[in-house]
């Protein structure tokens, strides 16, 4: 199946999960992530706010804040088209809705950090496979923003966050797709083989 058909089918399945099931799964997701020593050592972590049936991150965010971890959210970059910026997120962060209706920090007031200074980025996804291939919503936002991860040097760990049922055998991957370092679900965390993290 091509990316578009897989995306359609998996988004449908994802949206069929109830809010309370998503919240429960989100608690287990936070545990899977915290089973990873490198995640527990990350001082600056980017997450996302649940949209379109994605697994809930509210418990994860709460747990990170309690541990004193700096939390960031992606924002559609107003100047660099097709790219994301990352902005510090706490209880006082001014928020707005972007063109997709997703709540995001207001770029004008936010404290921005370049993606390469983040220790870990938790990415939402529509489907993943065990090799770290990821299908997102189809905007190419994460792929463009994280294209620098192909070059050698310091880079954030890229952890896909999903329900276990979003795992599929061997996904199609394009040249521009940036592979994940690991995938965390409501069941477990999988480190991608051949990945130094
Ligand atoms: N580094 C890049 N430079 C230019 N265009 C890119 C780049 N990465 C992706 N794109 C474009 O983005 C489009 C969508 O890519 P893709 O289908 O992989 O999205 P996705 O990974 O599902 O989306 P997202 O990253 O937003 O979750 C593609 O048509 C591709 O041309
Ligand atoms: Mg992609």
From TrEMBL:
The keyword Iron does not apply. ATP binds at residues 3-7, 134-142. Substrate binds at residues 49, 54. Its cofactor is Mg(2+). It catalyses: (6S)-5-formyl-5,6,7,8-tetrahydrofolate + ATP = (6R)-5,10-methenyltetrahydrofolate + ADP + phosphate. PANTHER family: 5-FORMYLTETRAHYDROFOLATE CYCLO-LIGASE, ATPASE INHIBITOR/5-FORMYLTETRAHYDROFOLATE CYCLO-LIGASE. Belongs to the 5-formyltetrahydrofolate cyclo-ligase family. This is 5-formyltetrahydrofolate cyclo-ligase.
């Amino acid at each position: 199946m091509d990316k578009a058909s897989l995306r359609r089918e998996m988004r449908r399945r994802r949206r069929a999960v109830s809010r309370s099931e998503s919240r429960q799964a989100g608690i287990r997701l936070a545990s899977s992530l915290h089973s990873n020593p490198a995640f527990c050592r990350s001082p600056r972590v980017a997450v996302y706010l649940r949209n379109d049936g994605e697994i809930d991150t509210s418990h994860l965010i709460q747990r990170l804040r309690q541990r004193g971890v700096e939390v960031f959210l992606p924002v559609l970059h107003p100047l660099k088209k097709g790219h994301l910026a990352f902005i510090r997120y706490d209880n006082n962060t001014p928020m707005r809705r972007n063109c997709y209706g997703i709540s995001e920090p207001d770029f004008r007031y936010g404290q921005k950090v370049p993606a390469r200074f983040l220790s870990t980025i938790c990415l939402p996804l529509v489907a993943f496979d065990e090799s770290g291939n990821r299908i997102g919503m189809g905007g190419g936002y994460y792929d463009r923003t994280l294209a620098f991860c192909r070059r050698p040097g310091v880079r954030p760990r890229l952890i896909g966050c999903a329900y276990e049922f979003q795992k599929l055998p061997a996904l199609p991957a394009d040249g521009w797709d940036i592979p994940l370092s690991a995938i965390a679900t409501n069941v477990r965390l999988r480190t991608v083989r051949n990945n130094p993290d």
